[in-house]
Amino acid sequence: MKVEIEESKLQTAYANACDGVKDFMESLFGKKVFEAAKPTLDDYKTIRTYEDACVALKQDAIRVDSVNRDTTTVLTNGGDRVNMPSHIVALMKLETISRALWGRDFQPKPDGEGSKVYWYPWFALYTKKEINDMYPEQRGALLSANAFHWCVCGFRFSECA
């Protein structure tokens, strides 16, 4: 009889096991199987979270003290508390993740023929006040818009084919 175990399920079981079971699993499969891949800029698959991106880029993560509706209190390196809009903190984290996923010293160099395709996040951030101050036509434009060549854009939605 042959039994096959997926490595990811084996690692999950190892993470949830007590010390005695971990020792048993290490003796059965070897310690190398259970070593988590360190986040690196050379392999984008090792970057799964914002914290992984920070480790790969060798930078400090944003330290969040508290979240209060639309405001996030962030701790600076000096220990001060700074209130920032939550969407700005989220944007900073997304930029860090995308920089890590691009990899080591990557610089896009588009060519005139268009043989290389690069994806770039294209969006605008609005506060509640900005949206409330818009004319109804402007607000309606945020909710849905159609463009040429099967491109659809909208509020919290963007898709191009």
Outline of the structure:
With 161 residues, this protein is an alpha+beta fold.
Radius of gyration, whole Å:
23 Å
How does the helix and strand content classify structurally? alpha+beta
State the strand order across the main sheet: 1-2-3
Tally of individual helices: 6
Secondary structure tally: strands: 6
Mean pLDDT: 79
N- to C-terminal distance: 48 Å
The dominant shape is: extended
Helix content: 25-40%
Please mark out the parts with pLDDT under 50 across 5 or more consecutive residues, or reply none.
Answer: 154-158
Largest sheet: 3 strands, antiparallel
By oligomeric state, this entry counts as single chain
Proportion of residues in extended strands:
15-25%
Succession of helices and strands: HHHEEEHHHEEE
Structure description:
The chain has helices at residues 7-16, 19-29, 50-57, 86-102, 128-132, 136-143; strands at 63-68, 71-75, 81-85, 145-147, 151-154, 157-160. The longest helix has 17 residues, at 86-102. The chain has 161 residues and is α+β, with helices and mostly antiparallel strands. The radius of gyration is 23 Å and the shape is extended. The strands form 2 sheets. A 3-stranded antiparallel beta sheet has the order 1-2-3.
